[in-house]
Predict the 3D structure of the following.
Amino acid sequence: MKELLFAAIMPHPPIIVPEVGKKRLKEAAQSKKAAEEVSRRIKKVDCETVIIITPHGEVGQASVPVYTSHVFEGSFTRFGQAKPNFSFKGDPALGLAVIKECGFAANCPETLLDHGCLVPLYYLQAAGVRKPVLPIAIAFQPLAKLFEFGQSLAKTIKRLGRKVVIIASADMSHRLTSDAPSGYSPAGKEFDEKLVRLVKEYDVKGILNFDPALAEEAGQDALWSIAILLGALDGLQVKTEVLSYEGPFGVGYMIASLEIE
């Protein structure tokens, strides 16, 4: 019996939310279409809880923050749109079990969700996925350590028998063009092309051993959340499909489906 039903990598630019992006959304049409498709796939598996790993919010240093509230809220107010407002049920029982059993996890009482959570969850809600969520923020730890956290996370999920979907919220390089948020670097394209290839090939070792200097120069926030996701998938048969990749605003967006066979 499978507990981990499906996994995905999704980006988190607020501009791909129609109410925020408006006319500019057409510049990220591939991402919108792929986000809708992966959300439909998640709807089909009928999970009990959606775990979403964000590189924003209450990020940690020594420990991984696990959000344990009964209810979460959020909006895109800081991006100029007070609506839509979001409200989600939490899964505190799973969150507290993760903290107890996963070594270097910490209880996070935060109830407001950042855009790293809200953008993927927007598309899930639009597809009719209205399940409790367990947000987990990344910690600035070595990728191997985050992978170990993911392994422990999977053990807790299995022990509780919780049927879950896991989403790694991940933007790629922020340095693809001269007008990119972090300025231009040729490392941006190199990083994105390499990570897309490694995900397509499901090369876990290649991702965990990614050149840290290249990652730093590229200005990415993808590897931490993906490392946790890969740890949770460790030992499973996984079929990966990169549904889209584009960088219309100087930031790389990849959407990938990781189907557990």
